[in-house]
Predict the structure of non-specific serine/threonine protein kinase.
Amino acid sequence: MTARREASTPPRLPGYEYVRVLGLGGFADVFLYEQELPRREVAVKVLLAGSLDDDVRTRFQTEANLMARLSHHPSIVTIHQADIAADGRPYLVMEYCSRPGLAERYRQERLSVAESLRIGVRLSAAIETAHRAGILHRDIKPANVLTTDFGWPALTDFGIAATTGPGVGATVGMSIPWSPPELLGEHPTGDERSDVYSLAATIYSLLAGRTPFEVPGGQNGAQQLVARIERSPLPPTGRDDVPFDLQALLERAMSKHPARRHPSAAAVGRALQQIEIDLRLPVTPLDLLDDLDDTAPPPLPGPGTGSGPERDDATRLRSIVTVRPAVPAPPVAPAATSSADDDATRLRPVVTVAPTTDPRSGAAVHVGVPAGEDVALVVDPGDPRRARGARRTRVLVGAVSALVVAGAAVAIALTASDDTPGSSTPPGATQDFTDGTQDDVAAAPVPSPHSLAGVRQADGSVVFTWENPAPQDGDHYLWGVLAATGEPTFEIVDVPTVTVPAASATGEVCIEVSIVRSNRQASATPAQGCAP
């Protein structure tokens, strides 16, 4: 066994006092210092004296510049300073993350599904932020995710990062257990979807307590791992509490072919959020500066805005829909009306809503409140024993576009004026509230097609069919043939079947299909299927 090397001598840094060693790396050591002004503990990464060739210096400067550009993100380690010590060694002064990092945790403890999802969403946002800045990380793994004092994951070590774009050249280093197949070949290439693979591999490690293709008790050398990464299917995590949808997400994000993976880290984050919703967990925010979903339908025009969406900061009550109260609304308590009591808390009528779906369309029932009404809304979670992985109904209350997830008991008071409703709706009745400002209508999550299968015909073509689990008027289907290289060309069809011509159906043929609603919302997770 190779002896562990001793730490290098910590440099004397003006304004900092050395405390202790934090970690040793291949090209640098990390020390804990106390900064004198402002007074705080910081982590200082110092290059080894034997690693000071031009290439390593360039990489170190690149890491400092890249992390400085990105460290405003809450899930990326903050860089405070970069300089050269008196002995000639470059160093970085970074945020000190005091809690155990993911490398320590995933081997030693069983992380819950909820925490793994939460970490995954936050890392997705950090990686997407880097990609939008034109930066690939290229070494995402548990050891490069620290934990802040407040328990947030913090991505670090951009030392082998590169600019994004097609045909990115060979990397200068990698960590095999979390690397995608395209980075393990003789001429490695990769793009954003390579980081997507490594992100999913990291989440897998948190759930499984091992690296994705590690065989407990077996041979796990570099040669064996590379062979499994290139050819073996992703094994299950081995946990009964990991839902099917999460395993399927990991399998897609870690597909051997980049074209079959999620197209971006943000797409992975949104898919993880959907699983949180399915499991009735709090939804972790996807922290992005530009949080516009390019796949979502554009907002409907607001009143008086012509053809464009209204972009002001006003808080407006949203429209409409059907409320099916589970109990009668109690009468309204009179509100105080004296001028000295204008800001007093007033009792509001309570409506209890049982999450449900329209039996004809499968669409979620949403709640709309008219302008000029004060209402408190309580959501009845219904039966908590619903099947794991089922799509949960979401209820949208339109003040400040607040989203209420079914299963959370949430009371939302919407105050617009001093008027109060004067009647209640009996159980089982349907009451429509409309205010004529139909500027924002919520839609239920679009399901994925199921039973996708292909049959090869006598002429060599392949006919694929699938089923729509909740058909609605105006549904279309977006499909494309998946290839090992390049992006698929997508087409829209009106019926749940397509034929891949014989000329395009040599060997195994795989396609991807999404349901597209009339409002242009699509399945969060497309269905994929292959035919030999």
About this structure: The chain has seven helices and 23 strands. The radius of gyration is 27 Å. Residues 16-95 form a domain with the Phosphorylase Kinase; domain 1 fold (CATH 3.30.200.20). The longest strand covers residues 16-24.
